[in-house]
Each structure stands twice: as structure tokens, then as C-alpha cells.
Amino acid sequence: MKKLFSLIMLMMFMMIGFQSCDDDSSITGGGVNPEPELVGCEAADLYDWDSVEFSTSLDGGADRWVAFNLEELTYFTVFINQPGFLITMYALCDGELGGGDALFQFQTDGNSFDVGIAPPEDYYLNILNTRPGRLDFTFSLTTSEILYGCMDDDAINYDDTANIDDGSCVLTDCNTDYWVEAYQDWSSNVYGEMVNDCNGNCSPITWIGDTYCDVGDWGIYNADGEVVGINLWCVEFEWDGGDCEEIIEGCTEGLIEDCNGICAPADWLGDGFCDDGSYEYNGSQIYFNCDEYNNDEGDCDALGRTTERRQYPNGRIKTN
Fold first, then answer.
1. Backbone angles phi, psi at 231, to 5 degrees
2. How many Cβ atoms are within 10 Å of 69's Cβ, its own excluded?
3. CA-CA-CA-CA torsion for 118, 119, 121, 126, nearest 10 degrees?
4. Order of strands across the sheet with 74-80?
5. pLDDT mean values, one per 10 residues, the chain (320 residues)
6. Which of 222, 200, 218, 103 minimizes the C-alpha distance to 156?
7. Residue ranges per domain, the chain?
């Protein structure tokens, strides 16, 4: 009898075991687990290179991911027709955020941004609305032919069509003697031995460390009889041989880096003006309307903007 009871129990156990293998619900406790929802760059809209263009809108603080693939070495440009967006691009995707260091990041001002040459790869681009309100915008990526050449406008072979510098720049030949009409003498007698200054212009070597800080406010006559300002204020000339103050990396006292790393007055934060590129400091548009600065400490959250331009003097010039 005991043997019969044991046999019956064994058969029941085997039947339960078979049912467990065939019925997923008995394993998971009520159905197959759903696939996790993709977020961040993993949920990016994937575009063919030739069709990376769209118009849409984003709420304040919201973002959107775009993914695309380059099949060959390409020079490309990003365009958004509205200011106030922070654009960040990665070569890797890792969950909600792009993987690795950002390849580039910039704040839009309604114009295009030249990214430069990018190798064949998958790319993930984040578009973040840094403004408080919803914004409509048009986004596109465009390619350009890669044109190599000299991009130093101080060089005698400067190529204004080039978008990639090929290292071919040739600066002014300072060994060529020429007649200086104003002095009725040759340049070698007037200026002595010369060398290319920080801007590629010929400068007398004797001007280096002569107690005058040469930052372009004093000049010499060139071969065309024009007065050219001499700039020796760079590390190559040890800050004019010590005549000029050394330029320290980063921003000087009272200045901080804006959203794009441009030095700007720290007291512009929360001063009642929205610094969204509408104002300039030392010739550069200043952006504090990003998360890092709490949207210009709230200045860019308020309605109404001004087109007043702040300008600060860069120093006197007397080269003519």
C-alpha cells in the first residue's frame, strides 16, 4: 500500500513539473515580463544622413535625441533656426545619456554651427530647450565638400574657401628687404633683423623685451607703405620678453565662463537682463541661459527682452 501511495505521489509531482515547463505563467507569476521602455539616446529617432531635417517643438527644459550614421569622412554643419537650444553630440549611447565625453556642445543663436570633419560612425545628438517656454524650431544637418588649405588669414597664401587647415600656411618673409619711403632708407637699416610676430607680421627683433608692451598699438611700415601693428603679446615671445603681463589660462578676476566657455562678467548673472546672446562682451555673444546658471539666475524666465548692447573697450589702437 505504501508503495502504491508513493507511486501516485511521484506521478503527481511529474505532472506538475511538466505543466511548469509548458506554462510560462507558472514561472513568471502571471505572464511574460514586458520589454523595458527605451529612454534617452536609446530611444533616439534614427535618420538617414540625407534626411536629417525636421520641424517640431519642445517644452521648456525638454529634450530630444537624434541618431544618424556617417558612412564616409564628412564635413558637416548643424542648424537650428532658434536661439536658446543646447546641442550636445556623442559617438556612444549609454542609457539615458550619451556615452563617453561629448564630441562637441554649443548654444544656438539662430545660426548654423560648423562641427567640422567627422569620421564614419554612429552619432547621437541631444537637443535641449534651455528656455522656460515651448519653442517651435527647424533642425537640419548639412554636408559640405572638404576643402583643405591655409586658414590663417595672416598668411600670404590664405585660402578663404578652405574649411580644414592643411598646415601649408606661409607667413610673411621677413628676410626680404624693402624701401621705406618715410625714412628714405632700406628696412634692414631702419628696423634691423625681423621675425614674424604673434599675428604673422614682420617685427623688429629689437622690440622684444625693450620695456614697451607691444600688443598692436605700435607699428612699422610694411613693403606697401602701410603701418602694420606689431603684436608680441603671446607665449611664443614670452609675453614680449616680459614687457607684457602674462595671459593666465581661464578667466581673470570678476569674469566667469558662460555656457559656451566664453569669459564674461560674473555680475551679469541675475542682473535683470536675459543673456541669451543678445549682449556682447569684448566682441563675443554671451549666453548664461543654461541649466548650469539656472537660466541666467531667472533673468531668462521673465517675459520681455531688450536689444540693448553692452560694449566694453578693448584698449586704444594707434597704428595709423
1. -120, 110
2. 12
3. -10
4. 53-58, 135-144, 74-80, 112-118
5. 43 44 40 55 74 86 86 82 88 77 83 79 88 90 80 81 80 86 93 88 92 90 91 88 79 80 85 81 80 84 44 34
6. 200
7. 40-144, 179-241, 251-320
CA distance 232 to 240: 5
Q: Where do we find the cell 589702437?
A: 317
CA 104 distance to own-chain centroid: 5
CB contact at 8 A, 108 and 87: yes
State pTM to two decimals.
Answer: 0.44
Domain 40-144 has CATH 3.40.50.1110: no
| Residue linked to cell 564635413 | 75
Contacts 24+ apart (CB under 8 A), 67-72: 67/41, 67/93, 67/122, 67/123, 67/124, 67/125, 68/122, 68/123, 68/125, 68/141, 69/120, 69/121, 69/122, 69/123, 70/118, 70/119, 70/120, 70/121, 70/123, 71/120, 72/120
Q: Give residues with Cβ within 8 angstroms of 78, minimum separation 6.
A: 87, 112, 113, 115, 125, 139, 140, 141
